[in-house]
Amino acid sequence: MSKKPTSNVPAPSPAPSPAVLPGRLTAAAVLTALEGLALAGLGVYMLYVGIAGDPDSPQQAETGGVTLLALAALPLIAARGLRLGRRWSRGPALITQLMAMPVAWTLWTTGGAMVAAAVALALTAVAVGALLVNPTATEALGIGPGEQTR
């Protein structure tokens, strides 16, 4: 009988299971991701119109499209961070909601069909803001009153 040589390398530990996030935090992540996807979709549309369409100013349409695509990165990255329970993600998500309010106001003052978009955007921004400052969400992200900076 031969003995198998033993190794001093410890067996790999199983991957830790992800912590269960509160529903409020998950809802905030989903709504923030939808905002980012809407921005990205509008950016792609503006680029398409600038390149293949007949806008008044192709350069302005293309620049606007690229700008919207760049702006879409903020809520998409924040949504991913929220979904993973990362503490840093609350700031960019809240900034996104603050930036959405003047946009909603501009859409509101435009009138017509834009009023519905303004209402949807404003309600979403207020809802996500409320979800992110909720004590359950802040606790899940490791943010609390009087907590020292790590």
Describe the structure in your own words.
About 3% of the residues have low confidence. α1 packs antiparallel against α4 and α3 runs antiparallel to α4. The chain starts with 22 loop residues before the first helix and ends in a 10-residue tail after the last helix. It contains five helices and no strands. With 150 residues, the protein is mainly alpha-helical.
What distinguishing features does this structure have?
single chain; 150 residues; mainly alpha; 0% strand
Would you report the number of β strands? Answer: 0
| Number of alpha- plus pi-helical segments | 5
Share of residues in helices: 55-70%
Radius of gyration: 22 Å
Order of helices and strands: HHHHH
Q: Classify the secondary structure makeup into a structural class.
A: mainly alpha
Low-confidence parts: 13-17
Which percent range describes the beta-strand content? under 5%
Main sheet attributes: strand count, strand direction, barrel closure: none
**What is the average per-residue confidence, as pLDDT, rounded to a whole number?**
87
Q: Write down the overall geometry.
A: flat
N-to-C span: 56 Å
What's the gist of this structure?
With 150 residues, the chain is mainly α. It has helices at residues 23-52, 58-83, 90-110, 114-133, 135-140.
Task: Furnish the topology, listing elements before pairings.
Blueprint: H1 23-52, H2 58-83, H3 90-110, H4 114-133, H5 135-140
Helix pairs in contact: 1-2, 1-4, 2-3, 3-4
